[in-house]
Structures are given as structure tokens and as C-alpha cells.
Specification:
Blueprint lengths: L2 E2 L6 H5 L17 E2 L26 E4 L9 H12 L8 H6 L5 H12 L5 H14 L8 H9 L6 E4 L4 H10 L8 E3 L12 H10 L6 E5 L2 H9 L3 E4 L5
Parallel strand pairs: 1-2, 3-4, 3-6, 4-5, 6-7
Length: about 240
């Protein structure tokens, strides 16, 4: 039975689960799990951090998304995008940013161009955005419940990171949190052709770990990532963004 106990600081996420992922209508290999810690007031730290409840199935390997899953970086990424886009930032509202969570960085600019008939320079904008993000990297914090899982299963199970970000940004994030050594491999946008929601990032991670994709458990924070896990034939825990 699917457990749905969702409290999110991103209300649009609660309302935009793809039709294929609606409760009780999902295909058999997709596990939707929404859990939260105890409620807290805005601006007041949560006294009971969210922790994932692992399924009873004994998976052979774990695969983690990075931004919004291991690292609480999504607000920092959005600030960097807004500054880099300048006058065009109004075309990239926060709900759209979260909707595109997990999409490769270059593809985000391409989508903005396609939707608004623009010709924004993709590589230049991405470079500017990533420079700004690196300047803000000292603000990166861990998502403790997920990082605890990674620490607990280090050297117990093969573990990978599969991200839509560029390698130097993903590695910088993991190094800032001092968790890079926990993972056997890190898959980034340079390592595959089709990004999430295609299954390529997760399949590449499974290939590198020499594990059957169906025996992998994915940790994700976006519906794009959930769709990618589904396409890869993997079960997935959805990490909520809570206060």
C-alpha cells in the first residue's frame, strides 16, 4: 500500500504528480513515499528531521539524486538562476524551476528559449549561473535524513549519485558536505545522452555498479526524477522539502 504523508514547502509539487504516478494508479515497480518530520513554524528549525522509511525489500544498491535529495541546494540554485537570467528571470518563476528539477542545466535554458521564442546563449548563461552558485556554495546544507541513509549503508551496499548537473558542480556540492567518499560512482550530465525524465542517468549508475536496475532503490525529490526511476524499472522514495 502506498503511504502518502506529505507536507511540502513547494505547494505546486503536491498538485503536479504526473498522471502515471497518482496514488494507487502507479505501475508495480514504483514506490511513492511521502514522509515528514514533526511540523514546525516557518523560520524555526524542525526538531524532528524527516527520515525515509526504507521498504522491506532488500535492494542490492542505492542511487541518490544530489540537489534537493542529498543536499538542500534548490533555493541556492534558484537564486543563481535568477541572477544569471537578469531581466529574463521573470520568465523562470519558482514553480517552473521546481517543475524542471533534475533536468540537465543546459536543457533548462533551451526550454526557456523554446517557450518564449528567445535565443538566450545557452553555454554562457549556464556558465554564469554555475559561477554564481559556486560563490554561494558555503550556504549548502545536507538533507540529514537522506545523508544518514548514505552513511549507514557506506561499504554495506554499492551506492551512486545520479544527477542532471555538471560534474564540477555536483562534486563541489558533495565535497562541501564531506560525503563524496560515501559513493562508489557519481553520474553527471556529461555521462549520458538523455537526461531525466529519461532513465539514462539511473541506468548508467546501475551499469557502473554492476547491479540489475530492478534491484536498485532511488532517492529523488522531483517528479522528473520519479519518472526517470519508473522508466529505469526502479523503485523510488520521494524526498519532501519540508520546513
Amino acid at each position: 500500500m502506498i503511504k502518502l504523508f506529505l507536507t511540502s514547502r513547494r505547494p505546486h509539487l503536491n498538485q503536479r504528480l504526473p498522471a502515471k504516478l497518482k496514488p494507487f494508479q502507479q505501475p508495480p515497480r514504483l514506490l511513492l513515499q511521502f514522509n515528514t518530520g514533526s511540523p514546525s513554524l516557518k523560520g524555526v528549525p524542525n526538531q524532528t528531521p524527516w527520515r525515509p522509511i526504507l521498504p522491506e525489500t532488500d535492494f542490492d544498491a542505492f542511487i541518490f539524486d544530489c540537489d534537493g535529495t542529498l543536499a538542500d541546494t534548490m533555493p541556492i540554485h534558484y537564486r543563481a538562476w535568477s541572477k544569471a537570467l537578469g531581466e529574463h528571470a521573470r520568465l523562470f518563476p519558482e514553480p517552473l524551476f521546481y517543475e524542471l528539477g533534475g533536468v540537465p542545466t543546459c536543457r533548462v535554458v533551451e526550454i526557456i528559449n523554446e517557450r518564449h521564442n528567445l535565443q538566450l546563449p545557452v553555454e554562457l548563461l549556464v556558465s554564469q549561473k554555475e559561477t554564481i552558485f559556486e560563490e554561494l556554495s558555503s550556504e549548502i546544507l545536507p538533507i540529514h535524513g537522506v545523508v544518514e541513509v548514505a552513511r549507514r549503508f557506506h561499504k554495506v551496499k554499492p551506492m551512486a549519485v545520479a544527477s542532471g548537473g555538471h560534474r564540477h558542480i555536483v562534486l563541489r556540492t558533495l565535497e562541501t558536505l564531506q560525503i563524496l567518499p560515501l559513493f562508489d560512482t557519481v553520474v553527471c550530465s556529461e555521462d549520458y545522452t538523455n537526461g531525466k525524465p529519461a532513465p539514462d542517468p539511473f541506468l548508467e549508475a546501475a551499469r557502473r555498479m554492476n547491479v540489475n536496475p530492478a534491484r536498485c532503490l532511488v532517492f529523488e525529490d522531483s517528479t522528473t526524477g520519479l519518472a526517470a526511476a519508473q522508466a529505469a524499472g526502479m523503485e523510488c522514495i520521494l524526498v519532501p522539502q519540508v520546513y
